[in-house]
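Researcher: Structure for this, please.
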Amino acid sequence: MNQLETKDLTAADSGTDKFLDVEMFATMVRGGAAQLRANAKEVNELNVFPVPDGDTGDNMSMTLEGGVAALEGVHSDDLAAVTQKLSKGMLLGARGNSGVILSQFFAGMTKGFSKYKKADATAVGEAMQEGVKQAYASVITPTEGTILTVAREAVAYAVSRINEKSTITSLFSDLIKEMYNSLQRTPDLLAALKEANVIDSGGAGLFYIMQGFYKILKGETIEETESLVQVKNPTVDLSAFTADSEMTYGYCTELLLQLLNARVDTEAFDVKIISDYLATLGDSIVAFKTDSIVKIHVHTLTPDKVLAFCRQYGEFLTVKIENMSVQHSQVLTEEKKSRPMKDYGTVAVAAGEGIESLFKQLGVDAVVHGGQTQNPSAQDFLAAFSEVNARHIFVFPNNGNIIMAAKQAAQLYENGEVHVIESKDLGQGYAAISALNFESDDPEKITEMLTASMNIVTTGCVSTAIRDAELNGVHIEKDDYIGFAGKTMMVSEKTLLAAAQKLIGSMNDGEVCLVTAFVGKDADPETVSDLEDWMAEACPDLEFYTVDGGQEVYPFIFVVE
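Model: Predicted structure, token format:
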């Protein structure tokens, strides 16, 4: 899947916009999120291994949407202040390596915008250069042929084209043209991409975001699809506000107002009329107009007055009014539920009820649900850290694509010291968690011990192929069962049992003593029984155990030690 949408790359620039202000920036961000969301499945499928576990598009989309959500409660005409809110939302919502790098790119842009209420093309270019610099700095060993290369080359090209006639539109026109070209070169820089015949997925995600920015600048409408970030509707604690309570914090009032031509000139309507009135009723005010729809947010003791005033100009598409005294009481209740602080605590990522249960039996304090295709966010880790409430927290990401989010959360956490044990797969995490021992009073020694314990295991996975491929000399046809260890493809067979048998055989170097098989949802009992019988006959000297892991995507995960 090498071809991205190209029809916008040669469009003539008719923009006359010389400055980027808050309203346009916020609209561009929403457009970028919508464009990526619409193409997330394509980005997901740009996966080196042809297995149904690609999630780069979803991770980047949810990361950016975390920033979009943070903008909803912001009312400011200061570009620097708004980008800070966006950046904080993305840092907390960052998922997967590409999502973390994306959040760091925007964090760097925030630094670049720190002096500006609005920015011309030169200032935007400088901000993006800061974004590239911070994105590279976020990776210990930057790899070329990835999102980093695509960002660096495109920004460098776009900045080099800036002149006194440049507009914001012309800058982004140059940016996405070179971003597309850079993407096509990624297989020449990264052998794994060339072997798999795909372009870099993270770079593709960034391309779609910036393409969305550019479409908004040209005045195009991007079709909205359902957000990947699902907003949970919490249950209301009815005891939090009773007949004896006093209203203290007011109501969080949010509206979408459809202006009506019969009541007002919708094109000429100045939204300042509404924001000025809201300022007389409350605070935390947001009021901005997109086409003929006005988004409104205010904290007020008199939401009825807000509704009556706004209805002069149109009718409501949505209305949400929440008692903030109830919300405040619920927050206090949750704080009371937190555990007393202890010296040491543990957090692990697990995908599958059986694996989660096993980790808790082994002494893990908090389990973050997630894994391949379900990468947790930095915010998810922060919630787990707060739940554990320890001076030293040891974290087991158990997936190479989750380590950066765990580290980002560790940097953001302020109530203890977080030690990320860089477990790249289930096997490494299982080995380290099994070795948990806090008898030492030295966190560094504990970290060394846990890290050393991961080196004695190898993890192999069996899954189904979603496309034809040729990897590591292994011929793969769509729907085959494939087996791989780490980043090495090892087997491809027509049946699950044959793939499992051959993978175990390939991983057995003669020094293996124990094989633990985590059985996934898609492994039927008959196949599991047949595998146990085969192991007893073919490998009588090996100990073989099965665990009902309940994981998706992988019918079998083998931990060999």
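Researcher: Any notable elements?
Model: The chain has four domains: 22-217, 247-329, 338-454, 458-560. The chain is about 45% helix and 20% strand.
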